[in-house]
Fold this protein.
Amino acid sequence: MSSKLAIRKTSNSELRTSWFERLIAILAVVNLVLVFFDMSYVTLRDFYLDVVPSLTQLYDPVKGIEPHPETQNYLNSVNALEEQVLQAGLQSPQSEELLEELRGLSNRLVEDNPFQGADKSSTLEKIQHEMRTRVGENYGRDAFTTFWSQPYLSNTGWQQNIEFFNTEIRPLIGRNYYRDIGRFGGFVDYFWLIDLPFIILFTLEILARTYYSSRRKPELNWLEAILRRWYDLFLVLPFGRWLRVLPVTLRLYQTKLLDLEPFRKQLNYDFAISFAEEIAEIIGVQVIDQMQESVQKGEVTRWLFHPESRKPYVQVNNTNEVKAIATRLVNVSVYEVLPQVQPDIEALVHHSLESTLSQATVYQQIQNIPGLNHLPSQLTETLAHNLSHTVYSNLVKALEDPVGAELTARLMGNFRDALETELQKKHNRQEFESLLVDMLEEIKINYVRGIAEGGIERALEEVDQLHRNLYQA
């Protein structure tokens, strides 16, 4: 009963922890969305101004953005002109004063370029282009002077021109802004006030989890417990906020709100291929390079014929491998290979005997005697069979006989010594070493090329297939 109650309490505790972690993960997503919105706001402000103008009115103060005094005064003067024309007409003295004021403001607009502070000089260029196209002038200053004149507005129509200005020019001028400068020379930005509650929440959550981890694992101090999830520290840093995408993504994955398993498998697969290729190439090339160096130094010949000189060198079973391999090759050749090729040996001996005897005069005369013409062929066949069988039997007896075995060992030793003597000659040694080095170089090149052509990837695919078979079994 008590065990069931403990299990139930543990389950409820894990459930509460899961929901709490999911809530924190969702809040982290909200914070990340706000961070990216803040980072992109200045760049996308024109878009927000066209689509959601109320949003810019709400968020401009956060970024220290306010209407630019010069361009705003320009638009206010245009508004005053519209009201004056509506009340007294375009030909009134008051309208002429406002038009003259607009001509001066236009010249100052072109000369001072108030758009530069907001990095919108291209907007001013577009405004001048639209005005030049409208009035047919070559210079922006002349275009503004002509446009804000009573003769031009009267001849081309006041209503059409003011509609052109309000639809084509006013939005461009209205996009300009002034951004306040802080005491340290940077732009004013109050986003930290929005971000501060999230930072406090994440800090408390990290401290609580660290405390809980240190209680569960007393061997961990607080620093080690925090470093177990070091990426969460990005959530509380007031700078480099875009780095929060890492802890947010991991939290969503850990709370099963985001399925990143396919990406994780692919990432591990790509990393394994890259790492395995580099390691395999390095190890393989290094081993072959060492073999080539040993061949060039003559160490291979010395190791083969003088095993006692392999120091420092680890011996296994205190066995002379070269001698053991040679003995084994002889035994395999005599007991297993020769019986299989004995018919071919007999045929070869028979051919040799027949070729030799055919040159003898007696052999030719016997072949010409009726009834005995097949006798030479039968004799050579019998002789070849007996000869090959006798040689093989004597060879087997020599190996099984102690004296024969000793003579065989002496033969092998003398053969080895003679071979070593010949290999030690400069021309022979250089030729063999050159051939071995070239062969190893070819092996190295083809080894690396095989890896580059997907050898490691095929191996990893085989491993994955084996794992899938194991899981299905």
Summary: Residues 303 and 377 are 52 Å apart (CA to CA). The chain is about 80% helix and 0% strand.
